[in-house]
Amino acid sequence: MNTVYVVGTCDTKGSELRYLRDLVRQAGCDAVLVDVSVSEFHKEADDVDVQPSEVARFHPNPPKPEELKDRGKAVAAMSEALVEYIRSRQDIDGIIGAGGTGGTALIAPAMRALPIGVPKVLISTVASGNVAPYVGPTDISMMYSVTDVSGLNRISRVVLGNAAHSIAGMVLNKVSAAADERPAIGLTMFGVTTPCVQAVTRALEVDFDCLVFHATGTGGQSFEKLADSGLLVGGIDVSTTEVCDYLVGGVFPCTADRFGAFARTGLPYVGSCGALDMVNFGAMDTVPSQFRSRRLHVHNPQVTLMRTTPEECNSIGEWIAERLNLCEGPVRFLIPELGVSAIDAPGQPFHDPEADSALFAALERTLRRTTKRQLIRVPLHINDPQFAELLVTNFKEALREH
């Protein structure tokens, strides 16, 4: 049916949302108007397809009525309900929403819950700023509203019209991800693990569509989002460095859900210790004061690296292993004993055998090994060609086991 869901708060954005809905229909798509208003004085309208009360019923743990008198709590609760409502639908070919700060925060999580590839457009008053908290690891297209989303005028009609026609165009002109017949695999790469990942890609690209993700926090989330979306047949997670930033306080952190996609899906997983020797910060003058006396390395004028200590490496190894213990699918985690990055080698600034030993010992001590979940130590550096060959071999074995 080429159905587009039009989502927003009709109590404050009713004319704009109806305008979007009508233009989407005129462009040739079906449109479903979903009202997520939270005002207790808002009256349900006859021309709304899905009322706020219907969405609210999807909240997994409905708040008490008195709690909803606080607008912030009401918006948060409706946002949670909307996520579950959207997940329950099987007819969403595209989704579009419009709002200010509150509406953007309310709608964006539901868009992120949809698989990669489902068209998502969000017109917002905050789209010209830092949109990372709203977009996350997904393919949401955010459009700056220019004027406030507060009535129709000569500017908003054009901006909203462009947005409506863009979502309709995406839905009516779908590009199939299956155009490449090779199955897709995800790989994580950092600058200091590039030789390894490039060698793995060269060895596999004849048979697999190799999708490489830059391990900068969002990159790892995108890698796992694709796994959750059913778009990957497995992953080669060479560069798990985002865990360092998450645990120590760098600028490229993962989330607490790192490795969660592979626990949920059981997809074949081959991982390693890529760049677990470093925490990332911005320019040298942005490094927090408590770290100024640590071993620092200027990677470029915008990026300063800090060497992880034995104590931090112990925590990092335990954290990774505990999450891999939740994976029931085939798991192979390879330890390169001679160094985990290009600058963790004899004569290089982050060479620290004591810290690496603490990392490897924590992984060995914590990972619960089974026939499917294996830890493999090898006397190689992560960027040695032979290490890339071992990653390829183990991935193929894990894929057969799956």
- The backbone outline, from C-alpha atoms, is elongated
Order of helices and strands: EHEHHEHEHEHEHEHEHHEEEEHEHEH
For the termini, the CA-CA separation is: 35 Å
Rg from C-alpha positions?
Answer: 24 Å
Q: Describe the main β-sheet briefly.
A: 6 strands, parallel
Strand-residue proportion:
15-25%
Count of helices? 13
Helix/strand/pairing class, anyone?
alpha/beta
How many E strands? 14
Strand order of the largest sheet: 7-6-8-9-13-14
Secondary structure: helix percent: 25-40%
What does this structure look like?
With 402 residues, this protein is of the alpha/beta class. The protein has 13 helices and 14 strands. The protein has helices at residues 10-26, 52-56, 71-88, 101-112, 132-135, 156-172, 194-204, 218-228, 242-248, 260-265, 310-324, 353-366, 385-401, and strands spanning 3-8, 30-35, 94-99, 120-124, 141-144, 184-189, 209-214, 234-237, 269-272, 278-281, 296-300, 303-307, 331-336, 373-378. The strands form 3 sheets. Strands 7-6-8-9-13-14 form a 6-stranded parallel beta sheet, sandwiched between helices. α7 links the parallel β6 (184-189) and β7. The longest helix is centred in the N-terminal third of the chain and has 18 residues, at 71-88. The model has no long low-confidence stretch (mean pLDDT 94).
